[in-house]
Amino acid sequence: MxxxxxxxxxxxxxxxxxxxxxxxxAHTYPARLELELRSLWPKNDVRVINAGVGGxxxxxxxxxxxxxxxxxxxxxxxxxxxxNDAIRGVPIAQFRQQxxxxxxxxxxxxxxxxxxxxxxxPSFQKLKDGPLxxxxxxxxxxxxxxxxxxxxxxxxxxxxxxxxxxxxxxAPDQFHLNDRSYDCIGRLLAxxxxxxAAVSAAPRVPVAADKSQARM
Length: 216
What we know:
Elements: E1 7-13, H1 15-18, H2 29-40, E2 46-52, H3 58-69, E3 76-80, H4 83-88, H5 92-108, E4 112-116, H6 130-144, E5 148-149, H7 151-160, H8 166-169, H9 179-198
Parallel strand pairs: 1-2, 1-3, 3-4, 4-5
Helix pairs in contact: 2-9, 3-5, 5-6
C-alpha cells in the first residue's frame, strides 16, 4: 500500500455491523478491521466507518447510501445484508433486485464493494428458504463481479472442524456474534485486503475471505 494515502472504508449493514453482542464498540468488526489495517499500513490514515443500523432490511439501506455512505467518499464499502430479509420473508426476487440497486449505487459513488452474507446460528435450519437468500446474493455477486465474504460457511466450518462451538462464537442470544467472531471477521477481511494490495499497484479490487482461511 502506497504510503500517506487516506483509506476510507464504510461498513454498511444491520445489527451485526453495528455490533450487537459485542462487549464494547471497540470489539465490533469495523473497529477490529480498522485496527488490523492500521497495523498493516501504519503510514496510511485508515478509517473504517461503522454505518450499521440494527434490524434493517436491504431496501432500508438503499436510501442510506446517499445519506450515510456517499459523504464519506469511501474507496470501499463492505455491505452486510440478507439476515433480516430472510427472517421477515422478503420475496427473494425483491431482495435480488435491491442488491442490484445497491451495488449500482455504490459503484456510482466510486466505491468498490464487498458483500457479507448471513451468520451461522442454531435456529437457521428452521428458517424457511434461508439458503436461497445466500444463493441469490452469490448469483448477484457473480453477475456484478463483486466478492462475497461467506460468513455463514466460515462459521459453519469453524464449528464442523471442532475448533469452536456455536455457543463460543455467538452472543448469549445465540443469534448475534460475540467479540471472538467479530474479531475473526475483522482479521479475515484485513488479510484479504492485504492480499489484494499485494497484487495491485492501485488495490481497488478486494478479495473475499473463504472458509479455508478461517483460523481463530
